[in-house]
Amino acid sequence: MYRKNCHTCHRASFSSAEYGKWLCPTCGEDLTAQKAHDALTIERINTPQRNFKKSKTKLN
Questions:
Q1: CA proximity to 40, closest of 29, 28, 53, 30
Q2: Is 4 in contact with 17 (CB distance < 8 Å)?
Q3: Chain-centre distance of CA 6, in angstroms?
């Protein structure tokens, strides 16, 4: 799930697709050119230093 924040109405917009036409559902502002963020961690997508939580379970 991806998130972009609208600079016009300051609301969050969510999508299951990172690419493609993206309009703010509240005010209709075009958010397509903005960078997408992970919806849960609010970190930028496709950056080399993304922090992932490691699982505490061991795989055998």
A1: 53
A2: no
A3: 12
Q: Who's near 54: CB < 8 A, 6+ residues apart?
A: none
- Is the Cβ–Cβ distance between 38 and 3 less than 8 Å? yes
Q: Beta-carbon neighbour count of residue 55 at 10 Å?
A: 7
Q: Looking up tokens 């997508």, which residue turns up?
A: 45
pLDDT score at 37: 85
**Runs of H (alpha helix) within 5-47:** none
Mean pLDDT, rounded, for 14-40? 90
% of the chain exceeding 90 in pLDDT? 45
